[in-house]
Design a protein that fits this description.
By secondary structure, this protein is mainly β. The chain contains no helices and 17 strands. It has strands spanning 4-7, 12-17, 30-35, 53-57, 63-68, 75-85, 96-108, 112-117, 121-123, 128-136, 142-150, 155-161, 165-167, 170-178, 182-192, 196-210, 213-226. A hairpin with a 2-residue loop joins strand 13 and strand 14 (170-178).
Length: 235
């Protein structure tokens, strides 16, 4: 199969054709596909494990095909392809690799990222700032990006920059379309009201979908809220 550049929202079919030198198709031969950089995509083989190695048998036209699951982010997948002569009942020859090569699939997709900064500890009733960077690490535009956060129960929301839309304890920001390799920054000011450890999270979600799900990312930080045990009295 020739190298391809496609959208990460679409599956991709790899097909190898096996023929004799005369041009006659060779059915029943084995084509072994192996993804050499696991983690970007996998084979759709009807198997829950979705292995990175899959054998396909050539049909009467000499065609052996597999499907690649759409990637959920941008990246490149390299596939090693081996042509294997099968062992037949009417001869004593074992399976034999008679040729091999490589192909690649480059997936184009938006890739939302969230980087979150906040204090490790703070005193009660102080005002603290969480800073979030919402970025698109992909190579196409991330459409209609929305960032959200839920204020933890032991914190009070003070303000944000840019201003957020507030519904109950949930804040949201409509960031619009985010171009490739660009970022938007949020500042969220809160006031801790009780002792304890606070887990503060920010999530970013795009209107784009991969494998039926929106493209999203989330980051969290933990802040320990304390009351000082020191006191001073003068008489």
């Amino acid at each position: 199969p020739a190298p391809a550049v496609i959208s990460a929202a679409d599956p991709h079919r790899l097909t190898t054709t096996i023929r004799r030198a005369s041009g006659k198709p060779l059915p029943g031969w084995i084509v072994r596909y192996e993804i050499t950089n696991a983690g970007v995509t996998s084979f759709a083989a009807g198997d829950p494990s979705q292995s990175t190695v899959l054998d396909a048998i050539s049909d009467i036209n000499g065609l052996a095909s597999v499907n690649l699951v759409p990637a959920n982010r941008c990246g490149s997948t390299q596939v090693r392809i081996k042509i294997i002569r099968p062992s037949r009942p009417d001869d004593d020859l074992p399976q034999m690799v008679v040729g091999q090569g490589y192909t690649s699939v480059t997936w184009n997709a938006p890739d939302p990222k969230v980087t979150l900064y906040g204090p490790e500890s703070t005193g009660i009733d102080s005002t603290i700032t969480y800073r979030a960077e919402i970025s698109n690490a992909g190579d196409v535009v991330a459409r209609q990006m929305v960032a959200t956060t839920t204020i933890p129960p032991n914190m009070a929301f003070v303000r944000s920059d840019p201003p957020a839309q507030k519904i109950g304890n949930t804040l949201s920001w409509k960031l619009g379309d985010l171009a490739p390799r660009t970022a938007r920054n949020l500042s969220i000011l809160c006031r801790p009201e009780r002792n304890g450890t606070v887990r503060f999270c920010v999530k970013a979600e795009s209107a784009d979908r991969a494998q039926g799900r929106p493209l999203a990312a989330e980051a969290c930080v933990e802040t320990r809220v304390f009351t000082s045990a020191l006191s001073l009295r003068m008489r």
